[in-house]
Design brief:
single chain, alpha/beta, 7-stranded mixed β-sheet, 13 helices, 48% helix, flat
Length: 382
């Protein structure tokens, strides 16, 4: 049976089979082989299918071997990532065949263990040499690149030379000094009120101080950066690498809307018992007249991160939040006994307590704050 016939037959057999999921971004040839093995495991008596495995494996393996040959001719150090991925896929195909009783009887394949180890050693060596070159420079970008080059070396060979020691050397050299400036307000909401600060409990540097503190300040261990307020930066005479500017660019705090509606309620209550002891019920009802006040406030805060040396903006994000408020009170006609639970509670809400501006801003702040903090943290990671 020739190769073309095998392929055409397998396409017919496996057109209804689901694609086997794996972590190696399988090629079409890989999927054909893996599906054939899956089918063969279910029907090991099908010798024609077993014979087809030789050609299917040869096709699948050749794709990866050809890729390796191409990658080997390139000069970028990341070629090793691609080469190692190809060897891992070949290794995976070999393992699947070896663990299949049916397939392993028809097909003997290499493991590629030795080739994989050689590739890892070469990868570690090239990444290590690249890290050493980066260390010769004195700027922080070079320190970042050196750190990750040594880190890649240790990922392939954990104890490669003194790569871990050099990681420890390059990391502090690349730590960024980040200055978070006070929040500014360009929103029409506060501009129309003639204000340039928030209320007593929510002023412009409140967000700034909290961010610096929660990001770890000048002693953070969670990110390769130290964080300062603008005042702290001047006081400690640091050389900033990045500035973070936060600006409220929109506030919408509308006056409360009012709506009125009515609703009928009823329930059965115990009236008494008859002579035989059975409970008698009666239905009581009432009409609720409900007044609702409500509004939806919204705010948008822009975060802009700027390179301190070039003044180039390297990251801009806009964060939005909403705060929904509503309150209801009610009067009624009818039988008070028909009113229960939340409906009954509305009867006592004779006065609306509308949140003031500080209350609204604090609610918006609580929702926006985690987003802003996460955005800054992710932006300064390297």
């Amino acid at each position: 049976m020739n190769k073309c016939f095998y392929i055409l037959t397998l396409v017919f057999w496996f057109s209804s089979c689901s694609t086997i999921k794996n972590s190696f971004n399988a090629t079409a040839e890989d999927k054909a082989l893996l599906n054939a093995i899956k089918k063969f495991d279910k029907n090991p008596a099908d010798t024609s299918l077993g014979s087809a495995l030789t050609d299917l494996y040869k096709d699948a393996a050749q794709v990866h071997l050809d890729n390796i040959e191409v990658y080997t001719t390139t000069t970028n150090v990341d070629k090793w990532d691609k080469i190692i991925k190809e060897y891992l896929t070949l290794q995976h195909l070999s393992q699947v065949i070896k663990t299949s009783d049916a397939a392993s009887n028809f097909l003997k394949v290499p493991s590629y263990d030795a080739e994989l180890e050689v590739a890892k050693e070469k990868a570690a060596s090239d990444y290590y040499d690249l890290g050493v070159e980066y260390l010769k420079a004195s700027d922080k970008d070079a320190a970042h690149n050196a750190y990750y080059s040594f880190k890649k070396a240790t990922e392939y060979v954990p104890a490669f030379k003194d790569a871990r020691k050099l990681m420890d050397k390059s990391y502090p050299a690349g730590v960024l000094n980040v200055v978070v400036n006070p929040v500014t307000d360009n929103s029409s909401f506060y501009g129309s009120l003639g204000l340039n600060r928030f209320g007593n409990s929510f002023n412009n540097d409140y967000l700034q101080r909290n961010l610096v503190r929660d990001l770890g300040g000048s002693y953070t261990k969670n990110a390769p950066a130290r964080f300062y307020t603008d005042q702290e930066g001047r006081r400690t005479n640091i050389n900033p690498d990045l500035f973070v500017d936060l600006t409220w660019i929109n506030f919408d705090v509308p006056r409360p809307y009012t709506s009125k509606y009515s609703r009928n309620v009823s329930r059965q209550i115990e009236k008494g018992r008859d002579t035989s002891g059975h409970i008698n019920y009666e239905t009581v009802s009432a009409t609720l007249f409900i007044t609702k006040k409500y509004f939806t406030a919204s705010g948008d805060l822009e975060s802009r991160i700027t390179d301190a040396a070039t003044r180039n903006v390297i990251n801009t994000k806009r964060y939005s939040a909403q705060f929904n408020w509503q309150q209801e009170y009610a009067t009624f006609t009818g039988d008070r006994r028909a009113i229960t639970g939340n409906d009954f509670a509305m009867l006592s809400n004779t006065n609306f307590i509308v949140p003031d501006r500080d209350d609204v801003l604090n609610e918006l702040y609580k929702k926006i704050y985690p987003q802003v903090k996460s955005g800054i943290y992710n932006a300064v990671r390297w």
